[in-house]
Design brief:
By secondary structure, this protein is α/β, with parallel strands linked by helices. The protein has 10 helices and 13 strands. The protein has helices at 24-36, 58-70, 86-89, 95-100, 112-122, 132-136, 141-152, 182-187, 211-223, 251-259; strands at 12-16, 40-43, 76-79, 104-107, 126-128, 166-169, 172-181, 200-207, 232-239, 266-268, 281-283, 286-290, 295-298. A 7-stranded mixed beta sheet has the order 6-10-9-8-7-12-13. A 6-stranded mixed beta sheet has the order 2-1-3-4-5-11, with helices on both faces. Strand 4, helix 5 (112-122) and strand 5 form a beta-alpha-beta unit. The longest helix is centred in the N-terminal third of the chain and has 13 residues, at 24-36.
Length: 304
């Protein structure tokens, strides 16, 4: 896998908006926070554009990402926010150019589509981590520390969770970690960015989806045979994912019903996703999950 250079103070982070737009005052406050941590910040040319709910047209949004990968002054790219829109621009990423200019790329939620494309079609390690507006506008120390551990250190390490991890099935599993937002992953099915599940440690998270919709997504993956190809699973934060009626399963009952029979190690309570604080998880590197010791370890650095 290709890896971006480790980030250090004085390096430049480019902020691009692949999906929905954000208020200018929040963008500027997030920029100030990043600068207070010792980084330089460069805003995308179209960061303040709007087109319907999007941060500019599809062409302008993807051009900011491509331009940042080409820009020799930019060392890392952080997404402004999620929402919706990445799937509209993913096919216009300059794949061959990005292969020649590997950089740190950070985001979550709707950004999952871009992670999958960059991981699988470019071969680039990316980071399921905080974004400018939802996080750096008002960010916790743990979230900052977790991000910096991921992008500033080359060594393999234990990925620290702010609360105790729990296991659904015992044992250890090793594999390349991949995934992100469950709904977004399902939107990629049947496209060139469909996740390759074979031998992977699948990481999934979600927000504000009723339990029956999570059931539908997991059952589709079961029926397609995708989940049977996995080595293990990490369940991230499922923020406000509740039953739609009193007769529905609870989230935990549903997850156990759909996943426990796979017979693979499954670890949960991992605080990455739409939550505070938030763990940064590198995607595209080999990790080990130990459901007996309740640990997640990277077996290689995510940067060079």
């Amino acid at each position: 896998m290709l890896k971006g250079k480790k980030l250090k103070k004085g390096d430049t982070i480019g902020i691009a908006a692949p999906a929905n737009s954000g208020f200018k005052d929040k963008v500027l406050r997030s920029k100030e926070k990043l600068e207070s941590l010792g980084y330089k910040v460069k805003l995308g040319k179209h960061i303040f554009d709007t087109w319907h709910s999007f941060a500019g047209t599809d062409k302008s949004r993807v051009s900011d990402i491509n331009d940042f990968f080409k820009d020799l002054e930019v060392d890392a790219i952080m997404c402004l926010r999620g929402g919706y829109g990445s799937i509209r621009i993913v096919e216009d990423l300059d794949i061959e150019m990005i292969k020649k200019n590997p950089k740190i790329f950070i985001g979550y939620s709707d950004i999952t589509t871009l992670h999958s494309a960059l991981n699988q079609r470019v071969g680039l390690v990316t980071f399921h981590g905080p974004m400018a507006i939802p996080n750096f506008f008002d960010i916790e120390k743990f979230t900052i520390d977790s991000l910096r551990e991921s992008v500033e250190k080359i060594q393999p390490r234990e990925i620290i969770n702010p609360i105790e991890l729990k296991s659904m099935a015992g044992g250890k599993a090793v594999g390349v970690v991949a995934g992100g937002n469950l709904t977004t992953l399902m939107g990629d099915m049947g496209t060139p960015n469909e996740l390759d599940f074979k031998g992977k440690i699948l990481f999934i998270e979600e927000i504000r989806e009723p339990v029956y919709k999570i059931d539908r997504a997991l059952t589709q993956l079961l029926n397609s045979g995708k989940l049977h190809q996995l080595n293990g699973i990490i369940l991230g934060d499922f923020n406000n994912c509740i039953p739609a009626s009193e007769y529905d399963m609870s989230l935990m009952d549903l997850v156990e019903d759909r996943l426990k029979g796979l017979g693979i190690p499954i670890i949960y309570n991992f605080k990455s996703g739409h939550c505070r604080p938030m763990v940064t998880l590198p995607l595209g590197i080999e990790v080990e999950i130990d459901c007996d010791r309740l640990t997640i370890r990277s077996l290689e650095g995510a940067v060079r």
